[in-house]
Design a protein that fits this description.
Length: 173
């Protein structure tokens, strides 16, 4: 595919194996799904890829072949993401998220297009997995009596040290 061209993952029959831990499986509608967690599956048609020329290793080949992959996933409009996961994913994505809510992942670590595609997909799956884990709420705890006593003693020592540094004034006069 020439530089700057776009493809969806579903259009490529060679991409049968998913990223580490993410199995690609066929659904009844004939579309392949990428299993992220037990409850989250991403439809391959939601993922768009653009192939661009890569900098870095590749010798003379780097100027001729578009091996870098720019993976795009529409977080905002994906029907397969629960709302809580969508919000956490937006926060985790940071500057990789466009103003339209599209997550853009650039993969150019490897010299071949196929390895860069796999790398981009693995990074997407890892990011969605991180977003799928709900943060544990903080339990409110009270300091123990001993820790309060230690804190107050430390404050007393610190205050005494600062008092000892003061200028000595004599009351003459």
């Amino acid at each position: 595919m020439p530089a700057g061209r776009c493809a969806t993952l579903a259009a490529n029959p060679r991409m049968m194996t998913g990223p580490a831990g993410a199995a690609l499986h066929d659904t009844r509608a004939g579309l392949r799904m990428i299993r992220v967690t037990n409850s989250i599956n991403l439809d391959e048609s939601e993922i768009e890829e653009h192939f661009i020329r890569s900098s870095g290793p590749g010798g003379q080949n780097v100027n001729k072949v578009a091996t870098a992959v720019q993976l795009r996933f529409d977080v905002q409009r994906s029907p397969n993401l629960p709302e809580a996961v969508r919000e956490r994913l937006k926060r985790l994505a940071g500057r990789r998220l466009t103003s339209e809510g599209v997550l853009v992942i650039d993969a150019r670590r490897f010299r071949t297009r196929e390895r860069n595609r796999r790398d981009a997909l693995e990074r997407l799956v890892a990011l969605v997995r991180r977003a799928a884990v709900a943060p544990t709420p903080r339990k409110a705890t009270r300091p123990t009596a001993a820790s309060r006593r230690r804190r107050l003693e430390a404050k007393q020592r610190r205050g005494a040290l600062k008092r000892s540094r003061r200028r000595v004034t004599t009351d003459e006069g």
